[in-house]
Design a protein that fits this description.
2 copies of one chain form a homodimer. By secondary structure, the first copy, chain A, is of the alpha/beta class. Chain A has helices at about 10-30, 35-45, 50-55, 70-80, 95-105, 140-145, 160-170, 195-210; strands at about 35, 70, 85-90, 110-120, 130, 130-135, 150-155, 175-180, 190-195. Chain A folds into 2 domains: about 10-80, Arc Repressor Mutant, subunit A (Orthogonal Bundle); about 85-200, Rossmann fold (3-Layer(aba) Sandwich). The N and C termini of chain A lie far apart (about 70 Å).
DNA sequence: TAATGTGAAAGTGTTCACAGCA
DNA sequence: TGCTGTGAACACTTTCACATTA
């Protein structure tokens, strides 16, 4: 009845709301009762006006002239992002990256539960990561069906990512985060978010190399590296 | 003299150029001599027209009516991205995520060399990852200075990320990729790219939950999971 | 003729400035 | 008075359609 019609939140905003939620959780644990958009924006690494616009998609959240009530805003964001309901996920590929993700405690407090950690390597099967035992990748379909999983994380080598993806989709998964450096082909109705860690470094390097060429030749305070 | 004035390549384009370069390397190794924008775009997971526009920032690269010569285009992209010159990087925080990045062989072929892998945990010091031995974090300043490092990757716990960042900047680093879930404060002239793995999952989950609410109620072909 | 290269249009996201309200 | 909420301007990206050329 008091259900607010949260209309069409832009994807870029959703990503930032997740960051605000994390910052607010930290503030709440520190006992803070309220924050201004300026302080919250600074802690989240964004522009204050942009933050206020982001929050405005949820309707009025704050008190003019004062700021935002930390616990109330936190709950509002949690609800908007759907953190309240537990989500069952599977993760395929328990190498270093998969282990890092599975072991990240932050997921548990945000509604995510890894009900299946899968790997093709028998040597890794049975390892316990973040409280869950690694199972053979053969169990994929069984785990997905048993828990009604709709979200999967792929951290396998690139060579097998597509076949793993096909099996996930066939089993009923509709949303996939892919860390393998290949573009996954999926049928309509299935979402893939591609995350490419090496591209981040490459973009940074590009911007870095441009620094000297940009404006004035270069500053004296910067030492030249090569002999 | 034949230096082409590559003017103002958008950041979004730079990120995709890195992906194209990876795909082209695969095609070159498979012995392919040429590709069309359609095939390249499909392998990279983008729109063909967008790919052509991306490449157009480097000037004409292809042959009308035919396509692109794989080796020539590959070299062109490599030069534009600055892959040719070797870049010295340091990585701080050799947990699972740091180990995953340090062990990724793809960096070596793209001009990146990790000249320093640093960790605060004495138990990890001395481990060899990707051919490089882990050193104590106390050596940070020494490594940065010795190799003229300007690029760093931070994969430490969130609690120490800012202090590590401060030390990196003081030592001369100008570009940082930060995987710790905190916004880093840096002086002007220093670039930070924030990568937040948990946010990716959160955005995906948000879109996933919206699927049922979107357009028509839902399709018959999709099974409902919960009992 | 079959593909590239590219203006122009549409869409999306960000920033600004200020009205509105405790 | 101070900070939120937001329309309007701006900047950036993507998409489309088609002229262009080997």
């Amino acid at each position: 009845m008091t259900e607010v019609r949260t209309r069409a939140i832009p994807e870029a905003t959703v990503a930032r709301l997740a960051v605000y939620l994390r910052v607010l959780t930290g503030l709440a644990e520190a006992g803070r009762g309220s924050v201004s958009s300026g302080e919250l924006a600074s802690a989240a690494g964004v522009n204050p006006a942009g933050l206020r616009k982001d929050l405005s998609y949820l309707g009025p959240c704050g008190v003019r002239g004062v700021g935002y009530a930390v616990p109330a805003l936190r709950e509002r964001l949690a609800r908007a992002l759907g953190v309240e309901q537990a989500r069952s996920c599977v993760l395929v590929g328990m190498g270093n990256l998969g282990s890092a993700l599975a072991g990240y405690a932050g997921f548990g407090t945000r509604g995510f539960t890894f009900v299946g950690l899968l790997d093709a390597d028998p040597a890794r099967v049975g390892d316990v990561v973040g409280g869950t035992a690694v199972r053979p990748v053969e169990d994929l379909e069984e785990v997905v069906a048993a828990h009604g999983v709709t979200i999967a994380v792929v951290t396998t080598p690139a060579t097998v990512a597509q076949s793993v993806c096909d099996r996930l989709v066939a089993a009923g998964v509709r949303s996939i985060v892919n860390f393998a450096p290949v573009a996954l082909a999926v049928p309509a109705g299935v979402d893939v978010r591609q995350v490419d860690l090496s591209v981040e470094l490459q973009v940074l390097a590009f911007l870095d190399q441009q620094k000297g060429v940009d404006v004035v030749p270069h500053r004296m305070s910067e030492q030249v590296a090569l002999p």
